[in-house]
C-alpha cells in the first residue's frame, strides 16, 4: 500500500526519470528569481509583445532609462533578452520564444488566482 512512509517505488522512479537535470533545475530557479520583480516582469511582458528600445521600455516600466538599462543588463546577462542595433538605437527582444509562453502561463495563473477563477482541466504530458 502506498503511504507517505511507503511510497510506490515505480512512481518515484518514473518521476525521477523525467526530472530535469540539476543544471536545468538551477536555470529554472534562476529564471524565476530574475522574473520575481515587477519592473522586470513589465519589461518581459512588453518584449513578449514586440521588440523595443530602452526609451520605450522605460516609459512602459515607469522608470528612468538608466534604471531600465540596468534591468535589461540583468536580463541579458541571464540570456533572457538579446539586442540588435537598428541605426542609432539598440532594440531588445526576448532571446527565447519559450519565455513568452512561460510568461503567458504565469499570467493566466495570476488571473485565475486574483479573480478567483476555478482551475480547469489541463492534461499533463
Summarize the structure.
This protein has 125 residues and is mainly alpha-helical.
3D structure, described in words:
- By secondary structure, this protein is mainly alpha-helical.
- It has a domain of 78 residues: Arc Repressor Mutant, subunit A.
- Helix content is 60%, strand content 11%.
- The chain contains six helices and three strands, in the order H-H-H-E-H-H-E-E-H.
- A three-stranded antiparallel beta sheet has the order 1-3-2.
- A hairpin with a 2-residue loop joins strand 2 and strand 3.
- Helix 3 packs across helix 6.
- The longest helix has 18 residues.
- It is elongated and about 65 Å long.
- The mean pLDDT is 91.
What is the average per-residue confidence, as pLDDT, rounded to a whole number?
Answer: 91
Shape: elongated
Give the helix tally.
6
* Biggest sheet architecture: 3 strands, antiparallel
Arrangement of strands in the largest sheet: 1-3-2
Radius of gyration from CA coordinates: 19 Å
Distance between the termini: 26 Å
CATH topology of the domain at 37-114: Arc Repressor Mutant, subunit A
Helical content stands at: 55-70%
Low-confidence stretches: none
Give the CATH superfamily of the domain at 37-114.
Answer: Winged helix-like DNA-binding domain superfamily/Winged helix DNA-binding domain
Name of the CATH class of the domain at 37-114: Mainly Alpha
Indicate the CATH architecture of the domain at 37-114: Orthogonal Bundle
Beta-strand level of the residues, as a percent range?
5-15%
Order of helices and strands: HHHEHHEEH
Q: Given the helix and strand composition, which structural class is it? A: mainly alpha
Number of strands: 3
Amino acid at each position: 500500500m502506498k503511504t507517505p512512509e511507503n511510497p510506490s517505488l515505480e512512481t518515484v522512479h518514473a518521476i525521477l526519470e523525467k526530472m530535469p537535470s540539476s543544471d536545468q533545475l538551477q536555470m529554472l530557479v534562476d529564471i524565476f528569481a530574475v522574473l520575481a520583480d515587477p519592473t522586470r516582469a513589465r519589461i518581459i511582458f512588453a518584449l513578449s509583445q514586440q521588440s523595443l528600445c530602452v526609451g520605450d521600455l522605460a516609459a512602459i516600466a515607469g522608470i528612468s532609462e538608466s534604471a531600465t538599462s540596468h534591468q535589461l543588463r540583468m536580463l541579458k546577462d541571464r540570456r533572457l533578452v538579446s539586442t540588435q542595433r537598428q541605426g542609432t538605437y539598440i532594440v531588445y527582444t526576448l532571446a527565447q520564444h519559450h519565455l513568452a509562453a512561460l510568461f503567458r502561463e504565469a499570467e493566466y495563473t495570476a488571473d485565475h488566482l486574483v479573480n478567483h477563477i476555478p482551475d480547469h482541466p489541463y492534461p499533463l504530458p
